[in-house]
Amino acid sequence: MVNVIQRSYLTVCMLLFGAVVLVGCASAPQNDPEALAEYQKINDPMEGANRAIFSFNQVLDKAVIKPVTGIYRGFIPSFMRKAVSKFLQNLRTPITLANDLLQGEGGRAGDTVARFFINSTIGLLGFMDPASHMGFPQHEEDFGQTLAVWGVGEGPYLMLPVFGPSNPRDLTGKVVGFFLDPLNMWAANTDRDEIPIIRTIVSGIDARDLYWDVMEDIEKNSIDPYASIRSLYRQRRNDEIRNGKEGPSTSLPDPDRGFQLARPVTTK
Amino acid sequence: MAKMKLATRAIVVLVTLLISSHYNTVRADGFTNGAEQFIKSLADDATSSLTSETLTEKERQKRFRGLLNSYFDVNGIGKWALGRYWRKASKNERLEYLVLFENLIVGTYANRFNKYTKEKLTVEGSSRRGQFALVKSQINGGKQKPIRIEWRITRPNVNYKIFDIVIEGVSMIRTQRSEFSSVIRRNGGKVSGLLAALRKKTTKSNQK
User: Fold this and answer.
1) What would the DSSP string read from start to end of A140-193?
2) B193 CB within 8 Å of a chain A CB
3) Domain region containing B34
4) B125: left (phi over 0), alpha (psi -120 to 50) or beta
5) What pLDDT, on a 0 to 100 scale, did the predictor assign at position A17?
6) B38-69 burial by CB neighbour count: b if 16+ within 10 A, else e?
7) Total domains present in chain B
8) pTM over 0.95
9) Backbone phi, then psi, for B155, in 5-degree steps?
10) H/E segment holding residue B154
11) Which of A36, A146, B44, B145 is 20 to 30 A from A106 (CA-CA)?
């Protein structure tokens, strides 16, 4: 079953990449230094291909993902959907813990362990989150973030079929996370192939539910949804990597130099 | 002799720099505290004038526009969001762009205040970076995880003005700029392409 799904996903990818080769890659502007700086900053050399995949994803969303999520939102009350979200979060604990440790975040690793024991027991298998009220705030980590902390660059922007915005670093992190996940490993070793599939589908619906308002907003107000999502994804990801703290990449815009690309302003 | 002159001038420059940086840090506390108060008053004003459920959409947009212009550096934001294309735009294009930009903001955000929610903005503190006061705040809505919001505020003249809002690490002005520059690039580097897209968007959202 997993094989069938993996194979058909790969087929879709190959078909799309075939289309991509036809569309071709955007070439870097050569004679305008400002245009070149902008091109490098956007870091999306496969934009034509990515946009083709994005259109495919939009069609898929309109036809399947959004209607299914709409039914989920319509029939399941908000508190139950939140419980499902929390349950899925709790299932991701081993991956978060491994990455807390790989990033040398001892305090956060402690939070993660405490949360797992509290929420899996008195939190009713993770459907509730009493740990947040006991001084152990929720957070998540993945291997993409760990690679970033270790200094691995993101690489060119990638739009994945079905899964959406990514880049080689985060994609690697996702794949590693999938195969090292204890529940998925257990399912693979005991021939319970349906478990990771169901989990992926439910997680997908949960994610679409969580981003419902953001997506509505982009659909309604953006004049270039592809570019908006690319910018949002990058900024959000950088914030997650820094665990919400300020860093060298949180540069400030310079109001006096409206025409220049922003660069960091040193603290006085 | 020339060397002496140079040395004197260097000292003068250094002393001026020291004084001015001292002046800056002294003023900084007043500046950032004032900025915190400014955000608190914005939150109060927005809640009292926009969230009433009996407002018509038109009236809410009108009030929102008023608040927008008194609390935000709308033209500065618009100019920055256009990036390097600001220079390439003609005078007429610039004027039309600034009008359309303001309409876009009004059309996008005014109707978010159409229902009163229990969400509350709490100011958490502030710091100074360059010419900005950065005010950190949180929106708490019941049992949800609080949302982090940073306000980036300048004082171009006597009044404070908001230049950027950063929600969970996402800068609004930066997102806007990357969207605009993408539209312009896809229209052969012409600002008129962006203006056409904005015209279409804003007439749609203002007619609703």
Assistant:
1) ---HHHHHHHTT----S-EEETTTEEE-HHHHHHHHHHHHH-HHHHHHHHTT-T
2) no
3) 2-207
4) left
5) 60
6) bbeebeeebbebbeeeebeeeebbebbbebbe
7) 1
8) no
9) -130, 85
10) strand B147-154
11) B145
The CA R_g of chain A, rounded to the nearest whole Å, is 20
First-to-last C-alpha distance (Å) of chain B: 75
Task: Note whether B84 contacts A: Cβ–Cβ < 8 A.
Answer: yes
The answer to whether A221 contacts B145, with C-beta atoms less than 8 Å apart, is no
Q: Is A235 in Cβ contact with B87 (below 8 Å)?
A: no
Which residues, other chains included, contact A16 with Cβ-Cβ below 8 Å and sequence gap of 6+?
A: A49, A52, A53, A56, A161
ipTM for this prediction: 0.80
Contact B110, B69 (CB under 8 A): no
Would you mind telling me the total number of residues written for chain A in this entry? 268
Instruction: From residue A137, give the alpha-carbon distance in Å to each of A123, A133, A142, A223.
Output: 14, 8, 17, 37
Counting Cβ atoms within 10 Å, is residue B197 exposed (0-12), middle (13-18) or buried (19+)? buried
Would you tell me which residues 208-237 of chain A have a C-beta closer than 8 angstroms to some C-beta of chain B?
217, 220-224, 226-228, 230-232, 235-236
> Shortest CA distance to A53 belongs to which of A8, A2, A18, A28?
A18
The CATH number linked to B117 is 3.10.450.710
* CB A261, CB A38: distance < 8 Å: yes
- What are B102's two structure tokens? 């303001």
Q: What is the per-residue pLDDT across A122-171, written as a single tens digit (0 to 9) for each? A: 888 989 988 888 888 889 999 999 999 999 999 999 999 999 999 999 99
In residues, how long is chain B? 208
B182 interaction partners in chain A (CB closer than 8 Å):
42, 224, 226-227
What's the pLDDT tens digit per position in A49-102? 999 999 999 999 999 999 999 999 999 999 999 999 999 999 999 999 999 999
Distance CA B134, CA B127 (A): 5
> Buried (b) or exposed (e) across A42-59, using 16+ Cβ within 10 A?
bebbbbebbbbbbebbee
Helix, strand, or coil here: B100? helix
